Amino acid sequence: MEPAGAAAPPPPSSNGRGHTHARRSDEQRAADRARRARWAARAARVGLPLLVLAALAAAWEWLVPVLKPAPTALPAPSLVLEALGRHGESLARAAAATAGIAALGLAIAALAGALLAVAFALSRWVEAALRPLALAVQAAPVVALAPLVLWQADTTAAALVISTALVAFYPFAAQTTRALANTDPRLRELYALYEATSWQRLRLLLVPGALPGLLHGLRGAAALAPAAALTAEFVALAVGATVSPAGLATPLLQAIQGHDVALLWATLAVAALLAIVFIGLGALAAPRTEPRHGSHAGAMASWRDGEMA
């Protein structure tokens, strides 16, 4: 007979299911905490810059009547917002035109940069011959390249696209070349051991390994494309070319010629927003990942066994 007041023994667990359930619950709670931390970090990346921008705008609005600068020097944010309201429709159309030029130029830059990076990866002679030319194009400012391209191109729109592509080309090509060159040397030796062809090395080893670097190069080029398109259009207008459809450089030049500083700031704000959109799209296309080499080893084994051409 058990003594009085003795605690009842815990019910036996069937095959440790209770402990397994507790472990799963702990893991689920940890996963939920990690998920909430990620969302908080993302919200902070978006919210903190917006809070800083709002604080700067409030301080700006307060300082203008205190310091009383010249109207052509520093308009209050309220006047900039008023200009955005008056010219919102035309600025939206201009931003769409600039975005189209930037997107086309970025696409051409990505295609040309990828082809050049592949040529560099497959032939050191090609790299030695063409890399100085690529550096020379990168060193030339767009304000010098745009008139030369404009005089050679059939249309102003084509000249703007080509000028934008020339600016965005080298960052993408350089990052892709670096990613192709950083492929695991052990896998390079393995492919050489089995006498893989250049096409097999490119398709099975170099391109999969360089994909994260290629996407990061796209992110860098996307950050440059809107500014390059805006600068190219501004240069085209300065030399007397007709730009149709008009991009953001047109209201920018009109604001400068008309001494409309509020419109100038409003146009710059729209241009900055367009650049942020391109940077955000580039960041979405380039997740923070590293090359994974295990898949290359599997592809090499399949190729060696005759399962791949």
Helix count?
Answer: 11
Mind describing the biggest β-sheet?
Answer: none
Poorly predicted spans: 289-309
Decide which structural class fits the backbone. Answer: mainly alpha
Structural domain tally: 2
Reading the helices and strands in chain order gives HHHHHHHHHHH
CATH level 4 superfamily of the largest domain:
MetI-like
CATH topology of the largest domain, by name, is: MetI-like fold
Summarize this, please?
With 309 residues, the protein is an all-alpha fold.
Report on this structure.
The structure is a single chain. The protein has 309 residues and is mainly alpha-helical. The protein has 2 domains: 19-61; 77-304, MetI-like fold, CATH 1.10.3720.10. Helix content is 79%, strand content 0%. It is flat, with a radius of gyration of 29 Å. The model is unreliable at 289-309 (pLDDT under 50).
Topology summary:
Layout: H1 17-67, H2 77-86, H3 88-122, H4 124-139, H5 142-152, H6 156-181, H7 185-193, H8 198-238, H9 249-257, H10 261-285, H11 294-304
Helix pairs in contact: 2-10, 3-4, 3-6, 3-8, 3-10, 4-6, 5-6, 5-8, 6-8, 8-9, 8-10, 9-10
Characteristic key phrases:
flat; mainly alpha; MetI-like fold; single chain
